[in-house]
Amino acid sequence: MGKAVTDVALDRKLEQFVRETAQNSADAALEGETPHLIYRYVQLEGDELEDFLEAIDWDNLQPHLEAVAEEDDEIGVRSMLDRINRGKLPLLVVEDRNAEGLGGEEFSKETNYASLLQDFGSSTKDENEGGVHGVGASVLWGFSAFKTSLFFTNPAEWSDDESPRLVGRIDLPYHECSDQDGNLQEWQGDGWIGAEDDQGRRAVSITGEEATEIATDQLHVEAADERSDSPGTTAVVVGFREPSRSRRSPAKVVERIGELAARYYWPLIVEGGLKVSVEGPNDDEPKEVHPEDVDWLTPFIEAYDQYEAADDELDEAPDVAATEVPVAIPHNSDQPTDGEVTLAVRSEDGDYDKFKNQVAMFRGARHVVKYRQYGYTARTAGQEFHGLLLAGRARYSSDVNENDVAESDATVEDFFRKAEPEAHNTWEQEVSKLENNYPGGHEEITTLIEERVPSTLENLLIDAGTNETESMESVGGQFPYFSGGPSHGPTKRNSPGGGSSIVENVSRKLSHLGDQYECTGTIDLAGQPADQWEFEIEIGVVDAGGNQFDTIALDDVSARPADGVGVVDDSDTRVVVGEDVASVEYDILSVSTRDLTSIGDGKARLNFEIDAKLEEDS
Questions:
Q1: For the residues 557-564, what does the mean pLDDT come to?
Q2: How far is CA 154 from CA 112, 367, 458, in A?
Q3: How far apart are CA 436 and CA 537, in angstroms?
Q4: pLDDT at 5 over 70
Q5: Is residue 164 reached through a cis peptide bond, with omega within 30 degrees of 0 on the bond before it?
Q6: What per-residue confidence (pLDDT) applies to 469?
């Protein structure tokens, strides 16, 4: 069975979902307005579920889904069908306000409507917007077990009697299924939900009052009756699930979305270029995301707020300094464009450990493309830090007039924009669009990020660093680092009164996939806990002698009771478990290790710290 078009465009991690949907809303902002992006997790049950299924013509859609699940279910169709049979259907609603909406005629080309729903891979964005490849919207289908998304939109350019419009698209893979006459047919999978077209080509958009009535009464899209007064789009991901992680609770999904929005879009949010809110099934109203309230983002935001007035030298920590780093943009001609990027650094005094010794990199879209690790530079200089690398239009206020942007910075902006792959998550990957426009561009970026940036960093940090003796000791800790496979480390266990272990078993499977460490496993206590208990997981880095000399920061921790019953709080790396839970399954994911793997031959291992007391020991 072939793959659906939307399955091959991007990876299907929640991080990518947030990156792409937020970028699309930011790019679609109405002039002079701040777009407001709202993520809602909705769980349909009872009459609401019946209304929804009727509205999407479930009787005709279900046989196709059953056929896909029977032939080769790689996209989670069977599991979601079973959930509907149990009376529940999860939706993730992504709504933006003060945005352009999906304008364009039904069978138009090069319009917002066409690029999102019809022509996957095309883009209508201009050169100053964040996206470039035109495949980001495919995440809406990629996170649907039914490969189905609905759109209720009020295009800013449409007249009041036309708006809003309601339409859905299905992107199932090839399958065989009987038609309405009972004849077995081959289906390419592409389908539409809407009104019957006069020319019989496909279903088309429902418009006006009828669209509002269906969205409100049958699809139960919150505030649908207000959409005609608010330009923008409400996208509904039908049968939402995380392809790479299926067990995260709705509350945790919403919490994670808020964390990711803050992580990657804090520069845009704090400058007033985007507003983001999240709402779970049990929330009364959306909760706004405030990056300023995220503890580990504080040093990055402080550096951003202070860099323009900062000196080019660091004083005693904490302090902010900023300097320029040259970049030569290659062209087809022999003469490159001499430009520069800004490196802003905040020296760390020990208050903020998470994401320390990393540089947040972004251009004019103010979407953090990557947090790149420079831990070895910090160890060499004897001073830890948080940093920013600002390229192109990011060196200017977000509301600056285009005519006030230096020609060299405009070139730098375009250079790094074209350096981003479809996922917009690095500048260091070889990208054909970059090489076609700037031959040799990848080599220039490699030199900038791997040589000029760490050299400039080291010069800044040494002046603010520790004394000479401490600095020399830190050099000795630089090698070896890790590039080998995983090594399972010891488990630290608390035993009341020095008696037998309270832990019966700890299982773990640590692997290095792509550029991150992933681990799954279980922790089984030796008996029933007397009270709620805690555990903490750490990925340590050890040398050939088994001596740990560093740790790898964790990006995500998720845990749940092994039997599905009980309470687990996994909002941080220290997990709190309910008193009735004696066995826990966990998943962890590290930050990117792409920039660390070539430094040495150390290995990663798992360390556990478990704090529990059993009933029999009370």
A1: 82
A2: 12, 26, 52
A3: 45
A4: no
A5: yes
A6: 34
